[in-house]
């Protein structure tokens, strides 16, 4: 008799817990709780472009703060990568992968005209990125324009001899912060910033 009573009590408690969990889940879904945040609120996820554009229009101060946080995250990731995989860090910091270099060299040898078109197209994309940067961060844009010749030279040195590039930076300390900002941009080839300094 006691066993039956204990069994009934146990079943009743389990059933009650299941009902409460089910009700809580339904209420949570209805009110939006428990959902994974989208876009820029995801933390390390890729920001949602529409949300970023809306934020820039509605609250420029908050937008600038958000950009600063993203730069900080990228800088931290690059620092870790530099310690764990120096070769990959070197390629990313130059804004181009080994595979891209091989493809471009192959294209230049096999199809010079196609190579010229690819370079022209890339320059067009860089100009678009710079126009966007001009609106988004005028101060950063102006720094790039003001030092474009030095950046191009530094870029070339960085490709041919990183040691000389470091020496060049020591001789031109005014470029250090700007160069670091450019290198800290994730997917620099896509962003167009490092691409501009080629």
Question: What are its keywords?
Answer:
single chain, 198 residues, 12 helices, disordered C terminus
Plain-language structure description:
With 198 residues, the protein is mainly α. The protein has one domain (58-196). The protein contains twelve helices and no strands. Helix 2 (49-58) crosses helix 3, helix 6 packs across helix 7 and helix 8 runs antiparallel to helix 9 (162-171). The radius of gyration is 26 Å and the shape is elongated.
Largest sheet: none
Task: State the helix count.
Answer: 12
Helix content: over 70%
Outline type:
elongated
Low-confidence stretches: 30-45, 186-198
Task: Please indicate the percent range of residues in DSSP E strands (runs of 2 or more).
Answer: under 5%
Mean pLDDT: 67
Short description:
The protein has about 200 residues and is mainly alpha-helical. It has one domain (about 60-195).
Topology of this protein?
Layout: H1 2-31, H2 49-58, H3 60-84, H4 86-93, H5 98-110, H6 112-136, H7 138-146, H8 148-160, H9 162-171, H10 176-183, H11 188-191, H12 193-196
Helix pairs in contact: 2-3, 3-4, 5-6, 6-7, 8-9
């Amino acid at each position: 008799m006691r066993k039956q009573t204990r069994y009934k009590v146990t079943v009743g408690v389990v059933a009650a817990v299941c009902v409460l969990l089910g009700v809580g889940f339904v209420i949570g879904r209805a009110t939006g709780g428990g959902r994974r945040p989208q876009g820029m609120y995801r933390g390390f996820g890729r920001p949602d472009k529409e949300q970023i554009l809306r934020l820039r229009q509605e609250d420029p101060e908050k937008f600038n703060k958000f950009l600063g946080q993203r730069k900080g995250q990228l800088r931290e990731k690059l620092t870790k990568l530099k310690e764990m995989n120096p070769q990959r860090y070197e390629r990313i910091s130059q804004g181009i992968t080994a595979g891209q270099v091989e493809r471009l060299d192959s294209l230049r040898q096999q199809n010079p005209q196609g190579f010229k078109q690819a370079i022209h197209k890339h320059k067009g994309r860089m100009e678009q990125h710079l126009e966007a940067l001009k609106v988004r961060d005028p101060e950063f844009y102006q720094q790039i324009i003001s030092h474009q010749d030095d950046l191009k030279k530094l870029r070339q040195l960085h490709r041919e001899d990183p040691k000389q590039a470091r020496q060049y930076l020591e001789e031109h300390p005014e470029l250090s912060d700007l160069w670091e900002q450019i290198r800290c941009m994730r997917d620099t080839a896509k962003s167009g910033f490092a691409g501009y300094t080629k």
